[in-house]
Amino acid sequence: MSLIGVRGRIFTLDPERPFIKDGIVVFDVKKGVIEDVTSYEKGLEYGLEEVFGSSRSLVIPGLVNTHNHIPMYIFKGISIRRTGISWLKEIWRLESCLKPYHIYAGAIAGIAEMLLNGITLFGDMYFYEDEVVKACEEIGIRASLSLGVIELFEGPPKHTIEESISFASRLNKNEGLVKGMIGIHALYSVSGDSIKMASEVSREREIRIHMHFAESRDELEIVKKLYGTTPAEALEILRVLDTQPLLAHAVYVSNSDLEILSRYKPFISYCPFTIMSWGSGIARIAEMIEKGIRITMGTDGPATAGWMNVLFEIKVAIAAQGSLYSTPYKLLPQDLLKHAIINGAKALGWEDVGIIKRGFKADLVVLEPIIPISIEDPDEASYSLVYDFGLFSVRDVFIGGRHVVSNGKLLTIDLERLYINMEEARRDIMDRCGRR
Length: 436
Description:
It is built from 16 helices and 16 strands. The chain is an alpha/beta fold and 436 residues long.
């Protein structure tokens, strides 16, 4: 075995041993699996080849971003001052000009930012998603990807539900960093027949569905016209809820919808910044948690979120839920971190990711405090991470034991080449299909 150690204050998310004040994570580089989590002194008995971090470091499981459209990094900085369907129609017009090489360039850039923010696993839904597969495998990041299907609107690249199913099935045949999901854009943009087909295949082959849900008031009106129901009722009729899907947003949920969701307990990807900045409502996340609905955290796409930072989204979520219910600390940092990382990994189909524990994947992030911060227990670790994340820098990132960020620098991405590729791709798409 080739054993490496990561030292620091270990915030494990393991209920049996949630925090080690001066500990070390020992993992096998070749297997990419954690061998032991113990005190620093005991860890040295393994005769480690190298030790990263120090007694000042904070070591956490890799962060999980469950909902994204990462190639949209190519549109970063473009201002579209619209919301709902109006925003979608304008972005779909721009997306009509996308080619596979645009997707690859945007994916590389977005993944670079995620790694530098400690994200080691993400869920994505977009077009030409094989380009994202290529980017993930080259860089060494873990992902669950879905080929997005939009049937009922013109503009964006067209993929069929059969192609999305085939894409996911192909990825799930191999053991690797990338898994597949079925990508249904939304109830209002994909036909009922296609959604039924996806639900049936999802149940038969155990391939999870990733889709937008109850995101805007526009969606409520369109779903009412199409199905004569609320979004949750439509999902129940189409048997999507039988598949334990990953539903992004869930903002406009009535009391009756909440009861339906509580019966099936799907995964919800909460992306508060994008939705709130659009002037949309605040999802009833605290109530969902109370009813056993499984909450995860996402950033949404780079064109709307602006920052691929899960800790920032958690901080916004805590403020939003406190405001919605007029109750301070309605959600606590430690609880929401568990939902984000542990539930997030499960939502994306990874059972051995998200906890620093023997036998789990060595997906680790080493954070260095810029100034001394009190971190003596898991409660202080979680509060520091969420409330003061700006006082930490990401020093090292390991994914499956592979070192992908060292001393704050990306090891598997050529930043100069990335800049040139992005510059060329952005110029090309804006010249051919820029804003009117």
